[in-house]
Amino acid sequence: MHPGGRIWILWKGNKVDVEVLEMDPQYIHAKVKVLQSGVTFISTFVYSFNKLEDRLPLWNELIRICVTGPWLVLGNFNNVLFSNERLGKLVIDNEMALFQSAVNNCGLQDMKTTGAFFTWNNKQSSATRVFSRIDMVLVNDDWLKEWSEWFAHYQPEGEFDHCPCIVSCGESNTGNKKPFKFFNMWTKVEDFGALVTQHWQI
């Protein structure tokens, strides 16, 4: 916990049950149960520290608590994953590499997003304005197997420096037909046409 109460979670008790599993100054780790459907998942709510050296323990904690089963990790990471996620200020390679390593070790990836790309800016004049994508919603493969249609929508920041984010629920994929996916690079495989014909007949 943090004396300043850095992270708050509010929920409707008639809709979901939330059991806090762990608390830390940079995250709250909780089990969430949707009462109507009985669906249960783990969610980690993040508000990381501003300084790079202060954020490092968070990356180690995420690796330690890495979840099997549907896992949602969301909040203000105060860190970009890739260099194109900041404008107006250089990105430190080590800053990205450490965060990327933690995300990869946890098997996390971005949830589908709509709306604003840059989720924060410093509200300064155009000459010194910095834009960053530091607010994220990350999920693991087990989450995507169940709810691939969920997406995060980033609204305009308005008077705030951060863009509010709404995670919208989709339908469960359990028992549903999987969508067909095709990658153009497959056509570059030698004898692609013959392979397709052979396997189509099978």
List keywords for this structure.
single chain, 202 residues, alpha+beta, Deoxyribonuclease I, Chain A, 4 helices, 29% strand
Largest sheet: 6 strands, mixed
Strand content: 25-35%
Question: Mean of the pLDDT scores?
Answer: 90
Structural class: alpha+beta
- The counted number of beta strands is 12
Q: What is the CATH fold-level name?
A: Deoxyribonuclease I, Chain A
- Shape call: globular
Poorly predicted parts: none
The span between the termini is 58 Å
Radius of gyration: 20 Å
Order of helices and strands: EEEHEEHEEEEEHEEH
Helical stretch tally? 4
CATH structural class: Alpha Beta
* CATH architecture assignment: 4-Layer Sandwich
Q: Looking across the biggest beta sheet, what order are the strands in? A: 1-2-3-4-10-6
Helix share bin: 10-25%
Q: Could you explain the architecture of this structure?
A:
This protein is α+β, with helices and mostly antiparallel strands and 202 residues long. The protein has a single domain (16-201), classed as 4-Layer Sandwich (Deoxyribonuclease I, Chain A). Helices cover 21% and strands 29% of the residues. It contains four helices and twelve strands; from the N terminus they run βββαββαβββββαββα. It has helices spanning 52-64, 93-105, 141-147, 192-201, and strands spanning 16-24, 27-34, 40-47, 71-76, 86-87, 108-110, 112-115, 120-121, 131-132, 135-140, 151-154, 165-168. A six-stranded mixed sheet has the order 1-2-3-4-10-6. α1 runs parallel beside α2 (93-105). The longest helix is centred in the first third of the chain and has 13 residues, at 52-64. It is globular. The N and C termini lie far apart (58 Å). The mean pLDDT is 90.
